[in-house]
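Milestone 3.1: sequence recovery, worked example.
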């Protein structure tokens, strides 16, 4: 398999999920061990933006309620593992959600109705999500935490934001897993948000990521990762082709390795 740089569509989707995940785990509801377990998230309609939010919420550990009346979108969400259940009304959704919320377990439930119908019933029945996507017309409008994307702040040069992606020249999950483990080893123990992302994002992104791994971290992580990859390849510990790209302030750096280079 020939290595190619990540195509734009998967890159943008995975990056969008990563941004949504980062915003979700900034919530004061989030716990380092359980994430958003036991919390109800309502992102609104399962459109393109809602799909990224739903995947992010799955990775963060929330119980998520989404809605769409489009049957093709419902079927695709089930096929891709984005939603666990598609149900016909809010009653069915709440039965599933209440059980999973009690156990602090991740679940994604889609109601096969227009958003306005479900939101009106949520209002009438007093269904109060712990987190809402901004501008979703479901009370409480001020008390519930709104999902917002924060502005970047820079404390020191080593913490300058960086996006790092990697992919392999094979379709073998075990090869990607090797790079994933190296990446995990390059994170500090207290960086639980990034560690959770690396552990769970492959499970929930699945084939939608097209074999692409991506993490939004910082320059210090990128430098450690590149150093570790260089050492492992020099010692012959990696026997498959791979490519790593690091984007800092929009400028990419490339690390490409092929066994034929040995």
């Amino acid at each position: 398999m020939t290595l190619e740089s990540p195509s734009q569509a998967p890159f943008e989707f995975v990056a969008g999920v990563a941004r949504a995940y980062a915003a979700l785990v900034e919530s004061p509801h989030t716990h380092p061990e359980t994430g958003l377990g036991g919390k109800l998230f309502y992102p609104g309609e399962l459109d393109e933006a809602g799909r990224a939010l739903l995947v992010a919420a799955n990775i963060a550990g929330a119980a998520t309620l989404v809605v769409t009346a489009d049957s093709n979108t419902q079927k695709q969400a089930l096929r891709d593992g984005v939603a666990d259940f598609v149900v016909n009304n809010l009653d069915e959704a709440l039965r599933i959600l209440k059980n999973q919320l009690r156990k602090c377990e991740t679940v994604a439930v889609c109601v096969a109705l227009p958003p306005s119908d479900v939101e009106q019933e949520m209002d009438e029945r007093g269904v109060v999500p712990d987190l809402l996507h901004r501008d979703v017309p479901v009370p409480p409008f001020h008390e519930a935490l709104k999902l917002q994307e924060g502005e970047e702040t820079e404390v020191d040069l080593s913490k300058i934001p960086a996006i790092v992606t990697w992919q392999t020249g094979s379709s073998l999950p075990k090869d990607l897993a090797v790079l994933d483990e190296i990446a995990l080893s390059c994170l500090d123990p207290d960086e639980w948000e990034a560690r959770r992302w690396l552990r769970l994002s492959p499970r929930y992104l699945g084939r939608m990521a097209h074999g692409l791994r991506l993490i939004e971290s910082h320059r210090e992580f990128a430098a450690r990762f590149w150093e570790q990859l260089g050492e492992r390849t020099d010692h012959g510990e990696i026997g498959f082709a791979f490519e790593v790209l690091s984007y800092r302030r929009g400028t990419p750096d490339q690390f490409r390795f092929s066994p034929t280079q040995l």
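The beta strands are 40-45, 63-67, 85-87, 107-111, 131-133, 145-147, 161-168, 213-218, 242-248, 251-257. Confidence is low (pLDDT under 50) at residues 140-145, 148-157.
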